Amino acid sequence: MAEGFVALTVNGSIQGVWVRESATLLQVLREVLGLTGTKNGCETGQCGSCTIWIDGAPRLACLTPVGLAAGSQITTVEGLGAWWQESHPSSPYHPLQTAFVEFGAVQCGFCTPGMLMAAAALLRDVKFPTVEEIRERLAGHLCRCTGYEQIVRAIREAAVAEVKEL
Ligand code: FES
Ligand code: FES
User: Fold this and answer.
1) Strand ranges (DSSP E) for 13-101?
2) Distance 128 CA to ligand 1 centre (A)
3) Of 10, 27, 46, 92, which is most buried, counting CB atoms within 10 Å of its CB?
4) What are the boundaries of each domain within the chain?
5) Topology match between the domains 3-77 and 80-165
6) Where are the alpha helices (DSSP H) in the chain?
7) With a 6 A CB cut-off, is 143 part of the ligand 2 pocket?
8) pLDDT digit string (tens) for 1-14?
9) Ligand 1 in reach of 48 Cβ (< 6 A)
């Protein structure tokens, strides 16, 4: 199978990789770069667990051919704290990360990275999202454990914490 060289910028660091041309961004992040925070739940765009940011927009890494991500800024859950810290130097974690732990929104944790990336993009776009806005943004994210209530609550609490940190 044909291979090619791709330069990716992941969490602010430029990485050159030789990869199969048919590889997805999810495969490269997990299997080549060892960034296993991004989860592989279905590989078919059904579960949201592989959500990362490409140029700040939430995208499904399992549906993204790796070549399409070249030249873009890719942010994974491993880089979320550092992204937040750029504008909040005293906080190594995004408020969502602490709120998810505090409010029981992490159980098995499999959906958590995708939920965090989607929710962080939402809070960046909307300061105080309503419950409906949160549910709408998380519509493509499946969680087998929490029943979603704790996740919605954690996102609302993180929105308040964000404002306090401003
Ligand atoms: S692994 Fe990408 S949506 Fe499920
Ligand atoms: S915490 Fe287990 S799938 Fe969401």
Assistant:
1) 13-20, 51-54, 57-60, 73-75
2) 27
3) 10
4) 3-77, 80-165
5) no
6) 25-27, 66-69, 77-87, 95-102, 112-125, 131-137, 149-165
7) yes
8) 689 999 999 999 99
9) yes
pTM, to two decimals: 0.96
Which amino acid is located at 116 in the chain? L
CATH of domain 3-77: 3.10.20.30
**What is the model's pLDDT at position 164?**
66
Q: Which two tokens stand for residue 79?
A: 């880089």
* pLDDT tens digits for range 69-119: 999 999 999 999 999 999 999 999 999 999 999 999 999 999 999 999 999
Minimum-distance ligand 1 atom for the alpha carbon of 39: 1
CA distance 162 to 36: 27
Interstrand relation of 51-54 and 73-75 (parallel, antiparallel or unpaired): antiparallel
Q: Quick one: what percent of the chain has pLDDT higher than 70?
A: 97
Give residue 110's Cα distance to chain centre: 12
- Looking at CATH, the fold of the domain delimited by 80-165 is given as DNA polymerase; domain 1 (1.10.150)
Residue type, 60: L
